[in-house]
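In the current project phase, the collection of sequences with tokenised folds has grown. A sample record is quoted in full directly below:
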Amino acid sequence: MRLVYTVGLIALFLGAVLRPTVSRATHVRAGEITTRRLPGPSLTYEITLTTYYDEQTGKQAADDANRYTFCFGDGTTAEVERTIRRFINGRTSSVNVYRTTHTYPGPGAYTIGVQIPNRNKGTKNLPPPGNSDQITFYVSTTILINAALQVNSTPVMLNPPLDSARVGQKFCHNPAAYDADGDSLAYRLSKPQEGITNSCRSRFIPAYLDPTSFSRSSEAGSTPTFTINPQTGELCWDAPGEEGQYNFAFIVEEWRNGILIGEITRDMQIIVVDRPNKRPQIQGGELCVEAGTLIQRAITATDPDGQPVIITAYGGPFNVNSEGIPFPNGQNIVAPPFARLINGGIPQAQPASATFSWQTNCNQVRTEPYDITFKATDVPPRGTPALVSFATLRVRIVGPSVKNLTARPTATASGRAIQLNWSQYTCGGDSTKLIIYRKEGCTPFTPQACVVGLPASLGYQEIARVPIGTTTYIDTTSLRRGVSYSYRIVARYPGINGGVGIASTEACLELPLLAPVLTQVTVDSTGTTNGRITVRWTRPLGLQPGDLGAPYQYRLQRATALDGTNFTTVATINTNLQPNVVDTVYIDRGLNTTANAYRYRLEFYYTGTNGQLTRLDVTDPASSVRLGVTPGQRQVSLSWQANTPWSNDNQVHDVYRSRTGPNGPFNKIAEVRVQGPQTYVFTDTGTDGFVADGNTSRVLSADSNYCYRVMTRGRYADAKLATIGLLANYSQINCATPTDTTRPCAPRLGMDSLNCANLTNESFCNETTFTNRLRWQSTSGPTCDPNIASYKIYYARYVQDTPAELASVPAPTMTFNHTSLTTVAGCYYVTAVSQRGLESLPSNRVCNDACPALALPNVFTPNGDGKNDLFQPVRCPRFVESINLIVFNRYGTKVYEGTTPTLAWDGKATDGTDLPSGLYYYQVNVRYAVVDRNAPAQVLKGWVQILREGVSMR
């Protein structure tokens, strides 16, 4: 996963503000940027640029590198002065520190970048060769400011980025990154960047070459590699193939609670030589201890050439920076006391040995391990560069367990209670909390070394959190007699990555059984006013003669609903617990078991020394079984539930059905094995799966009402109640009528349609209304309802339209005459409707179309004698909707245009004047009443002779 940030104004051109402070700086070897948020409400960060300069070929530029411009990622910049310049590696290089503070305007993601001109010369994988001093140096760091992150610092890199390597040997580097906040770190490769002139932008150097471009093979003779371990950060080039100077970059990602909250880019340089020297060897490992343990870990290193070896170490527990200088008070990156490396930093004959020593304490507990990076450096003869190897020791520090946890029964004003006690816990500060967990049943569990918390598979639930100084707790939450309760305590440490400690040993206690136990709440009859429930219970378990004073008393209480709490006393039964006396059953009458479930509990009283009845205990409540029914398509779905102190899971429940109503008889039709709370269900499709009492299998009808009841079986989980056996309880009776959504089959439709070829010129003469005659047939199928009550006829004037309901006729009529039509054109379909009112799918769609016809004369005499005065169709025009007439004289001039439902031109021009006798040409556009709304008009063209002045046409 990569972190992508969008920061406004980051590409702001800053002109001369970003000008370099020297005209030709050629000195930068490596560097990175780190940040630290300062305490307080403001979003102020301390930002540090650490760079490494070439003090041989670039000394003049290094002398002049007194200030550089920081781009803060929020659109602002500042010039920052150099605060530290310290020479290293025999004054061939220097480490330089530029530090400033900056306050950000608000939450967001910000990328801080610094551009330095220029890199030192001679870097082989930044071609062209010898011109790396013409490439600027650029590093950046991205931070996420978020209120949920609280105060946060980026990781610091405690191992300098300058090392030597040998041709043909695997080279490794570890930055020894450490995050003071305990965030998780991950590593990935990147590429060196260069700044873009006069801006806060950068880009990957286009000419950059992967180091393997300069490799011939790995140390073992296989394909060369260039990789970084995503967990430890160990970067390895296996193996350099040419002498020279090389730069590469990698990114350290900072993660918290699965969210990427920042990343740092380190751009570093190594020098590869080809000398007869082999790198030393050193081993790491993993270690986990409880806080307070003194760690004394021997670290050994060897050299294949037999040369002396220097062992050094880097990591947050040492609380020193990459120069070996302690962090100032108030800025410690780890809580004291700090770790030491005894015999580190000095040449030793091999095998060289140093001791990693760290007196841990509770302030150092955290979720993430501490990574200790050990570095072995050989000491070759003068003139041969030293080689190095790295190894990582991952150290986890976990909190110890709470000690001496005990549990004992007690009593409070609210009833049953268990009191816990333990030794005072001192590992942690005031913000450390102790989490108390509980579960039913004793669970032998011994945590393995350094396994913290409680596995979820054990089933413990948190019931309380108490301050670190607490040594006692009283649990009063839903405790039941005869049940064993297991308790454990786990410490939770403060801070974002504080984590939890090792779980305490178990304290397990069973509350004694001195009270009765409910064993049955069964519905005997169902009714709104005469419902009846039988309640049964045991005599007090564990109560021995003489334990308490007699006489005794049961008080049965009832509440409404499965989880009702409005208990009222419905029966008081006095008893001396004498044998053969029936005192453990009560029939509760006059209930509305149709609408309600009922919940019962039993109080038990004894006679105290003062002669007064005193309540000893009360049973856990138990409800009646509540059955629900849901009608479906020729089926009924059942579901039931109960709220009882015994479990009805993993038992067989019986389902009963009556086909004749709530008064029965009821037949058992199924045995349902329920596995858990979601499996108290059954669907009745009419099949009888239990025929010992008669086979009542038959398809369920929507015309019948079916009634059901369920008998559940249950058992107490506690072994001491196993002798009670299975507990059987009936639900109330509940009835339902199945639905039936079976539709009739779609009819098959036919119609008397016109045959245009058989029509004569006189067909439909003088007819103004028409009739379409429909006829259809019913169809059948195995999934169709044959009980048809009526048919619906649907009609659409045009084929493009959706038919709408036209009429309905009762079955068995299967014809219909659609009358009073102005045209026979139209489309139809028919549906069948069942006696339940369910409509079939549409029948086939049938359409009728008109047979258009129109003929025009070629002469008329508009002389007013009443004979042939109009230019109009001859014989019998059929199904004409509209006519548009355009008339031209013999010179092509339009003299008339008009549109009418029927053609009847009187020989006048458009302006109403009579046209003279003569030959005229016409174009008639005719639209017919056909079934296609979009049918084009028919175009008729011809000539007509107008005759006036005494001419009469007979």
In short: The CA atoms of residues 229 and 235 lie 6 Å apart. The longest helix spans residues 59-64.
